Amino acid sequence: MLEAAIDRISKLPCFSKPTNVEILTGGISNLNFKVTDIGQQFMVRLAKDVPEHGVMRWNELELSKAAAALNVSPEVTYHDKGILVFRYIDARTLTAREVQDTRNLKRIVDLVAVVHNGLGAHLMTPILTFWPYQVNQVYARKLEQAGSNYSGILPELMAAQSDLMEATGPVHLVTSHNDLLAANLLDDGSRLWLVDWEHGGYNTPLFDLAGLAGNNSLSEVHEHFLLEQYFGLSAEQHWRAYRSMKCVSFLRETLWSMTSEIYSTIDFDYAEYTRKNLECFRNTLHDFYTS
Description:
Layout: H1 2-10, E1 18-24, E2 31-37, E3 40-46, H2 57-69, E4 76-80, E5 83-87, E6 92-93, H3 96-100, H4 102-118, H5 132-145, H6 154-168, E7 174-176, E8 185-187, E9 192-194, E10 201-203, H7 205-215, H8 220-231, H9 239-263, H10 270-290
Helix pairs in contact: 4-8, 5-6, 5-9, 6-9, 7-9, 9-10
């Protein structure tokens, strides 16, 4: 499989004399490669549509191009069915510990605000809406139909989701990234970049903020900081809706992983990832109900 992927990349018409085609580690849903071509470097992403996750590559492409136009993501230099080629950025991925540093957290929240407020102006086509409650409901139905080992707890999870949706209340839609893992944040030494738009789409800004907090184990002090950084003086009025969205973010990651246990062919311990996210969801839900 890996040899076939490298051979395919080497024959892409966008390259003249590709060398040093090497796989980039760290991805848990796609294969990414670094390619050198006549002194220039590129990142190649091999990824097909993933219906079980609602991932459509045309949507990722349009968001990636808009993000590049906004200058928050690398330039898309070529695309074809199942392939995206980006100009390579010489940068390192952040770690969760680095995200927890308030100096970095301020930079990240400012970047997220730029995305939310500015990305839409660069879109050239309609894009998908990523409404996490609907996303989770679809996951639950498909898991039940597939006879998932987790079918027995799905009613419990969906009952909790109903409470959370009521607590979230009305929302304001922005163009969101919807997958703010530390690994999707790059630091080139002078600025931050945001990559991997496969789950991007219209959503409440609270989902990105909650996902950023949950994925990077932010403390409650950090959470108040990020809300104040994003919303200013009105931060406190968003606290309850934010906390409900944090629960939903953990639930979505849990259901994503449960689904990946069935369908993914990537060598990754999805069962352990499910266990950890389910534990985080239940702990966060308990805190939501009791405080």
